[in-house]
Design brief:
Layout lengths: L2 E5 L3 H12 L3 E6 L2 H8 L10 H11 L2 E5 L10 E4 L14 H10 L8 E4 L7 H14 L5 E4 L9 H6 L3 E5 L3 H10 L6 E5 L1 H32 L3 H9 L20 H14 L5 H24 L8 E5 L14 H11 L3 E5 L5 H7 L4 E2 L12 E4 L11 H7 L4 E4 L6 H6 L3 E3 L4
Helix pairs in contact: 1-3, 4-5, 8-10, 8-11, 11-12
The chain binds nicotinamide-adenine-dinucleotide.
Nicotinamide-adenine-dinucleotide binds next to helix 1, strand 2 and helix 4.
């Protein structure tokens, strides 16, 4: 079993740390956030992720998982050090590599000879070499430290399950022996293993996320077209999905994609294409279409209240970028709520998991309400923006008694339109 260091205890780093400890490795996870480290050391999980608490508890009890403040403490006497720090979007669309560079410079002086630094964060083509250079310049040069790319494909909400049952593991390294060493960490998972060059591994991650974004953009466009021609996109998606070449996944229309990955990764790939003067109209169209989809949801709400948002009170169900996560980063719901406020509406929102503090920091003026019925009290209508399962089961008679206009705008197609209409509501979905 290997000694592993993890730099960054966020969605990816914490999941990687807990899962590798579960697989029997000895893991030290370092984060700059001292509060987070203190909480984690007590077995208190700062993010909502199914199964993570159990694995962290197991790791702490067995002694195979430790948390420390800072990157250095997680990097001494390690066989592998995984970089799991943020790579946010910078102003020109490119991935901001400053966190990665800072982390690499911090760990360089303390790495043992032979340690493999693994780029787990989503990093653009060329990053394996960039990290190697930063390590060498910061003092690891004479100690034969190697760098490999090993992008992560987990989905928030099912991160543990995805990590332990990956569709594939991708490892990119110029040195085959190093790639094989990294692959050994995952051997017991029995997943398909792609060992390739660094640039191809880095490209796999961006191409995969961009492809999924295009798929969402495509079904959203089909949904919008269905609205004009009287087709039901749910039926259309079902008929398409049975085709194994297409599949059912990512064929659910909605308010547009969001989250911490798709928006920034599509922007970064687009930036890469521009930097080599390669026209990539499908990707450009997807990015522009996604923003337009957010606006289309605002227009639906506006139409549902009779064309004028000023002076209206809108109840919002759901703020996170998708269900089963507490992550608000780049959430379409926040954008749409902000636009409704900007048009003069009063906006009251309820979300089962989102942090009130983070939601208010993103959308000043938003009112946060503690349950899904109270949020409707005195509101004109309700707009469903995140597909939390609990919204399916609400008592619609009760909701109707609280709203002044009996109208639901269901931006996730979560509810059954016939059942909603039977209760006397006006129902607006996406593409049906
Ligand atoms: N969130 C996802 O679903 C997902 C999936 C696949 C890949 N990724 C990629 O993984 C990377 C991390 O994403 P995330 O969502 O886990 O981010 P996150 O913001 O949740 O976590 C990053 C953590 O790194 C810590 N950190 C920053 N600099 C540090 C340093 N120098 N030393 C120690 N800790 C440091 C931060 O305090 C934070 O806790 C990104 O590149 C992202 O694109 C994310």
């Amino acid at each position: 079993m290997s000694r592993v260091g993890i730099i960054g205890a966020g969605y990816v780093g914490l999941t990687t740390a807990a899962c590798l400890a579960h697989l029997g490795h000895s893991v030290v996870c370092g984060d700059v956030d001292a509060d987070r480290v203190a909480r984690l050391s007590r077995g208190d999980i700062p993010i909502l992720e199914e199964g993570l608490l159990e694995l962290v508890t197991e790791g702490l009890r067995s002694g195979r998982l430790q948390f420390v403040v800072g990157a250095e403490g997680a990097s001494r006497r390690r066989d592998f050090v995984f970089l799991c720090v943020p790579t946010p979007q910078s102003d020109n669309g490119a991935a901001d590599m400053s966190y990665v560079e800072a982390a690499a410079a911090q760990i360089a002086p303390v790495l043992d000879p032979g340690t493999v630094v693994v780029n787990k964060s989503t990093m653009p083509v060329g990053s394996t070499r960039l990290v190697q250079r930063v390590l060498e310049e910061a003092g690891a040069g004479s100690r034969e430290v190697r760098v490999a790319s090993n992008p992560e494909f987990l989905r928030e909400g099912t991160a543990v399950r995805d990590f332990l049952n990956p569709d594939r593991v991708v490892i990119g390294c110029d040195d085959t022996a190093t790639a094989v060493r990294v692959s050994e960490l995952y051997r017991t998972l029995g997943a398909a293993m792609l060992v390739t060059d660094p640039a191809s591994a880095e490209m796999v991650k961006y191409a995969s996320n961009a492809f999924l974004a295009v798929k969402i953009g495509f079904i959203n466009a089909v949904a919008n077209l269905c609205e004009s021609v009287g087709a039901d996109v749910r039926e259309v998606a079902l008929g398409m999905g049975y085709d194994k070449r297409i599949g059912f996944e990512f064929l659910r229309p909605g308010p547009g994609y969001g989250g911490s990955c798709f928006p920034k990764d599509t922007a970064a790939l687009n930036h890469l294409a521009e930097s080599v003067e390669f026209p990539f109209p499908i990707l450009e169209g997807t990015i522009a279409g996604n923003r337009a989809q957010y606006e289309r949801m605002v227009a639906k709400v506006k139409a549902a209240v009779g064309g004028e948002l000023a002076g209206r009170t809108i109840a919002v169900w759901g703020l996170t970028f998708k269900a089963n996560t507490d992550d608000l980063r780049e959430s379409p719901a926040l954008y749409i709520a902000g636009r409704l406020l900007a048009e003069g509406a009063r906006v009251r929102a309820y979300d089962p998991a989102a942090s009130t503090e983070k939601a208010l920091a993103s959308v000043p003026g938003l009112e946060i309400v503690v349950d899904g019925y109270s949020v409707c009290d005195g509101a004109d209508l309700v707009v469903l923006l995140t597909e939390w399962d609990e919204f399916r089961w609400y008592d619609l008679d009760k909701v109707a008694s609280l709203l002044t206009v009996k109208s639901i705008v269901d931006c996730r197609n979560l509810l059954d339109p016939a059942a909603v209409r039977r209760k006397g509501f006006q129902y607006t979905g996406v593409g049906r």
